[in-house]
Write a structure and sequence with these properties.
Layout lengths: L6 H6 L3 E5 L2 E6 L3 H10 L1 E5 L4 E6 L3 H8 L11 E8 L5 E11 L2 E6 L4 H10 L6 E4 L4 E7 L3 H8 L13 E6 L2 E7 L8 E7 L3 H12 L4 E3 L2 H10 L35 H10 L3 E8 L10 E4 L12 E8 L6 E8 L8 E6 L2 E8 L7
Parallel strand pairs: 3-13
Antiparallel strand pairs: 1-2, 3-9, 4-7, 4-8, 5-6, 6-7, 9-12, 10-11, 11-12, 14-17, 14-19, 15-16, 15-18, 16-17, 18-19
Length: 369
Amino acid sequence: MKHTPLYNEHLKLKARMVEFGGWEMPVIYAGVIAEHLAVREAAGIFDVSHMGEFEFKGPDALSFIQYLTTNDISKIADGQAVYSLLCSEQGTIVDDIIVCRFNPEHILIVVNASNIDKDWDWVTSHKKGNVAITNRSDDFGLIALQGPKAAQILQKCAGAADIPAVKPFYLAKSAVCGIEGCILARTGYTGEDGFEIFCPSKDTPKIWQALIENGAPLGLKPAGLGARDTLRLEMKYSLYGHEINDKTNPLEASLGWVVKLNKETDFIGKSAIEKVKAEGIKRKCVGFQMIDPGIPREGYGIFPTHQRTNEPSGQIGFVCSGTMSPSLQKAIGTGYVPTEDSKTGSKIYIDIRGNKRLAEVVETPFLKK
């Protein structure tokens, strides 16, 4: 398995390590609930160095990104980041990404760790125009500092930089702990305020150690993949391989808000998504809350609360993700159901180890911020 620049730091902290997308990553340090609540109430620090980064430079960088992704990158400012998708010609999701625009001739995208090789092949095979594409995944360490005290902690390590002045989904270049060449993005995957810090790979441990030292008195805790999953699920953020994959389209995944069908330039998958929109989606990814006891888990079957003759097996969908929410103390989950069952208040059954348990479709995010 691959190791991030922070692998030895996780071992020192006695993290429990697991395989994730071909990487050996920390799933838990002190405990998922303690780590989760630290992020909600103070701050948590995550190693996300396994994520991939592709850099685009040249006169046609912007036009190529416009062709490659669903969001309209021409509408954001230099120094701004935005969530977007890579889609296939069939309109299905190749990956969900963050696009960082430094200027029209210099753009960086962040891709999911398990998709780095696939995405690289996809991007390079569709290259258009005068643009140089570089896979910089090994050059960067990436640390996510998340929580209401994240800016306060980062300010202690960022010298003269005005950290509070960086707006959400904007970028800043600053030295961190004396390390030059860092990029600070006010982004994250938890629903809290926070920053993702791109830094030179070899210097990542020094920055990690300094952030923990400065943040510990304010309640900062290192957090693993377990807490990352419960935090993102409370916000109903999609996770590739769960809510989205290469069989799902953005409209049924409730990601139509990042698909700009009205942008002037064409993009890969645009016509296919337009067709889906015109015909109407047949299923939808919803959030649900358990009414009966039980915790939903990935792959569990979803059943209607009334008999249907057109569903011989009875099953109408499946659970994508589920957990006991540490913030809400309720069992929650996401899943695909027919559009007729997707309205808020609709009742469904979740098959939990052979027992059908009642649940209700609810508004999301589950945790209102």
